[in-house]
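Supplementary Methods S3. Input chains for the assembly prediction are listed below.
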Amino acid sequence: MNLKDSISFFFFGNVCTGCGSSQKFDPWLCSSCKEELIACGERPIWPGKEDAICLYPMNSLTRKLVLAMKYKGMQKIASYLVAHSSVGRKGEALQILESWGKNMAFLPVPVHSARMRERGYNQSEQAAFELALQCNGKLQTNILKRRVYKPSQTLLGSSARSLNVAGAFEAKNAENLESQSGIVVVDDVYTTGATTTSCTRALKRAGFEKIKVCALLYELPASAAMDMAADKKLGWRTERD
Ligand SMILES: [Zn+2]
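Predicted structure tokens for the full assembly:
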């Protein structure tokens, strides 16, 4: 085992997050899972709206990665997902992001302060940081704010969840964005788009224009409901919005 592998083993354990095999290729995946990830990130997904793209579909592999990212303290998986979406087909998703404008501001969807305390990080911020790096944009974390703590989305039905996020955000410090050509709101998982739409509305109310959306993963609402039910049985408090 070389030094890099030893360090990786020390920090991340020695099994593939995708298949559990001990033939790990990098901090997270074995070579075949990594190939699979690159293949499923070849084409970005447009979840019905022209101004939103998602880097990967939710499937058994990406779901394991997103669960590890959100609930097992592995926030660097967000950067890993962004970096590997630029490998297939010469980084089609990143080309689209770049075509949206130069010097874009990347705004992560903020997490609830209670969740931030519990988890210690915001995985959307990690994704926004990496996207900004890859696209020569700028990470901006002081514009979008959560208003007040609301009950977990997991406990609410879908219409209540939409209402719950509708007024949940506000945009502050508008002067910080003057030099930017446009905004990309960054989320981890896009399902109905309720959360990012709420962020977009808050930004528009504050006078911003040219607002786009990018999420790491796209999950069909019907699959999300089934996954959440399965997670609940396993004791995971997962959420989608
Ligand atoms: Zn594997």
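The CA atoms of residues 24 and 85 lie 20 Å apart. The chain has ten helices and seven strands.
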